[in-house]
Specification:
The complex is a heterodimer of chains A (about 260) and B (about 250). Chain A is of the alpha/beta class. Chain A has a single domain (about 5-185, about 225-250), classed as 3-Layer(aba) Sandwich (Rossmann fold), CATH 3.40.50. Chain A is about 40% helix and about 15% strand. Chain A has 7 helices and 7 strands. In chain A, α1 (about 15-25) crosses α7 and α2 (about 60-75) packs parallel to α3 (about 100-125). Chain B is of the alpha/beta class and about 250 residues long. Chain B has helices at about 15-25, 60-65, 90-110, 140-160, 175-180, 185-195, 205-215, and strands at about 5-10, 30-35, 50, 70-75, 115-125, 160-170, 230. The longest helix of chain B has 22 residues, at about 90-110. Classes of the chains: A alpha/beta (about 260), B alpha/beta (about 250). The interface of A and B includes residues 148 and 261 of A. The structure holds nicotinamide-adenine-dinucleotide (NAD). Nicotinamide-adenine-dinucleotide binds near residues 41, 42, 107, 188 and 191 of chain A.
Chain lengths: ~260, ~250
């Protein structure tokens, strides 16, 4: 097991990707805190997975302070922080209200800032062993190239990418590695609401044909699963990745490797 | 006139993007020589000098450079494409694509850098396909990535004597693009679909690339070096999903 004896906290830990990450880190031997707004997170039901639930709104400074004090009281250190909480507003800038813009940044960018800031003393404490600790942020391929009607989301992910590199520079000397995973299309409630929210339903207004059309654009002819993302989180969190820092890891079935496809 | 008194060498200037660059340079006051494998094309403006030269041939390039006055601008535009995957490609394809697109750029740079005036500008024509892949264009895509890498190396190794940048065009209206649509099952629909993938809702023209080349060649770009400049009407800024899907 790759993560024996390590302590981890996953924000958005009851979301589509977060849950798969929590499950995998536990399978690999870590003690895991799943931090989310509610016990269910974005899914309708939650089966007890043995993780410790912490109620945490990543936009609240006080919530972050409390969550990491609780971890400190229990373990005195933290080896792995995964910032997987996120929201997606499906609008152009003209349709986006200032409140929606601010909320997008509050969760996706400021949330990453706050949890990272208040976990640093614990990550440093873990790194004193001589083995680096690891922060894993969630960017997106949308931080590089835009999907239509996702303006604020794209901008927050660009911010996360830049913050990832900045944190890696600043805290590398303290033994803290910082990376971001940039998923393409991953089958989670966030993706399903993107499919449903749009309403066009692709050709013939059918959500199945819309999903198939999206699969077909990928060189791998499929979109990803939360477990695909958890596989990479597991590696980045482990000591095998001790030389990996400051990078943006795109995991998208080849989607963004290609030029637009001419329909001939 | 932005290029008055400057001497420019442009490879492959007889048609398409190269012709656009030659024309723009002449309009901005430069004296221009271009080359191609065949005899002088009738399309060339009369003020442009012409020499028959295969850029892939290192000996011919060396002789050409030795015969030239000191240059201020070198544009490596000559290029060929072969539409094949790796397993389909032959040694002949390799020699042709890598010979012109990669070795040709290297040949010209190697022989011109030592004889260029201080503050000279080298402009290589790369491609968006050097960064992300066009299907069934394996050697072409790789040759353009070579151009991008060489561009940075020249900027790093040969500054401040020369600046070196690459322009990465997207879909530019040259004969090649129309020929592509003609093979589609429904040419009009294919054309509309392709337009929908461009935020600016049109394809590029050789002049769009030429105006960037003029800027990079001019002293306005004195601090620009080692970079790749994409001119593609916004195509690669958006995700490669089918237009209208969402
Ligand atoms: N699913 C995809 O295709 C995809 C693609 C690219 C990037 N991502 C990113 O991956 C991460 C996880 O996404 P997901 O697909 O699992 O989405 P999801 O909606 O299933 O899960 C997000 C979780 O974050 C929680 N959350 C939202 N606001 C919060 C807050 N203020 N404080 C704490 N928790 C909060 C939600 O309750 C939810 O459980 C996000 O950062 C997302 O932007 C996802």
């Amino acid at each position: 097991m790759k993560l024996d004896g390590k302590i981890a906290l996953v924000t958005g830990g009851r979301g589509g990707i977060g849950r798969a990450v929590v499950k995998r880190l536990m399978q690999e031997g870590a003690t895991v805190y799943a931090a989310d707004l509610t016990e269910q997170g974005s899914l309708k039901l939650h089966d007890d997975d043995g993780s410790h639930f912490i109620k945490l709104d990543v936009t609240s400074e006080q919530d972050s302070i409390s969550a990491f004090s609780a971890v400190k009281a229990q373990h005195g250190k933290l080896h792995i922080l995964v910032n997987a909480a996120g929201i997606e507003i499906e609008k152009t800038i003209e349709q986006t209200t200032l409140a929606e813009w601010n909320q997008s940044f509050a969760v996706n960018a400021t949330g990453t800032f706050l949890t990272s800031k208040y976990s640093l003393p614990l990550l440093r404490a873990a790194a004193e062993s001589g083995i680096s600790s690891s922060i894993i942020n969630f960017g997106s391929y949308d931080g590089f190239i835009a999907d239509p009607g996702l303006a604020a989301y794209c901008a927050t992910k660009g911010a996360v990418h830049a913050l990832t590199r900045a944190m890696a520079c600043d805290h590398g000397p303290e033994g803290i590695r910082v990376n971001a995973i940039c998923p393409g299309y991953i089958d989670t409630p966030m993706l399903q609401s993107f499919f449903e929210g749009d309403g066009s339903g692709g050709e013939g207004g059918n959500i199945d044909s819309l999903q198939q059309a999206v699969r077909d654009v990928h060189p791998m002819r499929t979109y990803g699963t939360p477990e695909d993302i958890a596989n990479l989180v597991n590696w980045l969190a482990s000591d095998e990745a001790r030389y990996a820092s400051g990078q943006l890891w795109v995991l998208d079935g080849g989607l963004s490797a290609q030029v637009q496809q001419m329909k001939l | 006139m932005k290029l008055k008194g400057k001497r420019a060498v442009v490879t492959g200037g007889g048609q398409g993007i190269g012709l656009g660059i030659v024309t723009a340079f002449i309009n901005e006051g430069a004296s221009v020589i271009t080359c191609g494998r065949r005899n002088r094309p009738a399309t060339l403006p009369s003020g442009c000098e012409y020499v028959t030269l295969d850029v892939a041939d290192p000996i011919a390039v060396k002789e050409f450079a030795a015969s030239q006055p000191a240059a201020d601008i070198l544009v490596n535009n000559a290029g060929v494409q072969v539409e094949k995957t790796v397993t389909e490609s032959t040694d002949e394809d390799w020699n042709s694509v890598i010979g012109v697109n990669a070795r040709g750029v290297f040949n010209l740079c190697r022989d011109f850098i030592p004889v260029m005036n201080a503050g000279a500008s080298i402009i290589n024509i790369g491609s968006i396909s050097g960064n992300i892949a066009d299907p069934s264009m394996a050697l072409y895509n790789a040759s353009k990535a070579f151009v991008h890498g060489l561009t940075r190396s020249i900027a790093v190794d040969h500054g401040p004597q020369v600046r070196c940048n690459a322009i990465c065009p997207g879909w530019i209206e040259t004969g090649m693009l129309e020929a592509g649509f003609a093979t589609a099952s429904s040419p009009d629909a294919a054309m509309q679909d392709a337009l929908d993938r461009h935020p600016v809702k049109r394809f590029g023209k050789p002049e769009d690339i030429a105006s960037m080349a003029v800027w990079l060649a001019s002293d306005d770009a004195a601090f620009a070096t080692g970079q790749l400049f994409t001119i593609d009407g916004g195509m690669t800024a958006s995700s490669p999903l089918n237009p209208g899907l969402f």
